[in-house]
Amino acid sequence: MSIEFRQVSLSYSSGETKVKALKDLSWTVETGGFAAVMGRTGSGKSTVLRLLCALAKPDGGQILIDGKDIHSSLPRRELRKEMGFVFQFPEYQLFETTVLKEVCFGMKNLGFSKEEMEENSRWAIEKMGFNFEAIRSVAPMALSGGQRRRVAIASVIASRPKILLLDEPTSGLDPAERRSFCQILTSLNREGTTIVMVSHNSEVVCETAKTLLVLKDGEKWKEGKVEDLFSSDLLPAGILPPPSLLLSSFLREKGMDLPRAVRQEDFISALLYQVGRRKNG
Question: Is 261 helix (H, G, I), strand (E, B) or coil?
Fold first, then answer.
């Protein structure tokens, strides 16, 4: 499903004054796209997600899902079925007694049949890297923090939403859990899920997203392909380069023939190639 913002604005009250959280944002995410939204705290990142899932209504402009205005042409129940929202630290919202009950809870509220819930829960739990039979009866609170995070996300993707929204999904994860989660997101996107992710982590964005929207003071500052934007200076928007780009730039200054790699995999491949050439030369 595609997403389109047409000159969307939103203000909120702060005392007696009105503060613009978002100003005339026009932005598109194609069907099957993977877009990241970055910027400083207060730049409007989370506002984009709140508007997308209709937790807030814009003061002006339109938000369209597959060409339908989410406030006038798309019933709320249909929107909830098509869109999944993973809040920051979703594991704090777990409350059921078993993993299976937790994953089925949202589907039950959306009116899924018993057969659909059984099939989708197995798919979602296994997609998040678990053995279904081994974990289905385990209490979520008996799991580690990273495992609870994966269970919470399984409960969101179990309804197989066509659009997945994520707010800082890798916050608090260790490097191994973060890499595993990035692989899961990439897999979901390859299967056709349109993803919009808010993140402050440049490495995660570069490893997963295809396009990037950079917000500054509630306005669109830059937009484009991830590789193109990270090849420019994003520091004015508070965005640091990923480690692979810093290291490849450092080695280039030392005379090594390397591309400006924003993705870790590209950097390692290029580095190994150059090391091999030097050994064989």
Answer: coil
**DSSP-derived secondary structure letter, 231:** T
Q: Which domain holds residue 225?
A: 3-241
CA-to-CA separations, 204 to 82, 262, 279, in angstroms, rounded:
25, 11, 32
Under a CB-based contact definition with an 8 Å cutoff, are residues 194 and 52 in contact? no
Q: Are residues 228 and 275 in the same domain?
A: no
Report pLDDT digits (tens) over 111-160.
899 999 999 999 999 999 999 999 999 999 999 888 898 999 999 999 99
Q: Count the neighbouring beta carbons within 10 Å of the beta carbon of residue 114.
A: 10
If asked whether residues 145 and 269 sit together in one domain, one would say no
**Structure token pair of residue 261:** 């790699």
How many residues can be counted in the chain?
Answer: 281
Q: Which helix (H) or strand (E) holds 27?
A: strand 17-29
Are 206 and 263 within one domain? no
Q: Say whether both 192 and 268 belong to one domain.
A: no
Instruction: Please state, as a whole number, how many other Cβ atoms lie within 10 Å of the Cβ of residue 181.
Output: 23
Identity of the residue numbered 230? F
What is the C-alpha to C-alpha distance for residues 184 and 173, in angstroms, rounded to an integer? 14
- Name the pairing type of β-strands 211-216 and 3-14: unpaired
Beta bridge partners of 212: 36, 224
Q: Identify the pLDDT of residue 281.
A: 58
| pLDDT tens per residue, range 2-56 | 999 999 999 988 777 888 899 999 999 999 999 999 999 999 999 999 999 888 9
134/266 same-domain check: no
Nearest to 5 by CA among 270, 213, 169: 213
Measured distance CA(96)–CA(24) in Å, rounded: 41
Please indicate, yes or no, whether residues 84 and 173 belong to a single structural domain of this protein.
yes
Extract the tokens encoding 214. 């950079």
Q: Are 181 and 218 in contact (CB under 8 A)?
A: no
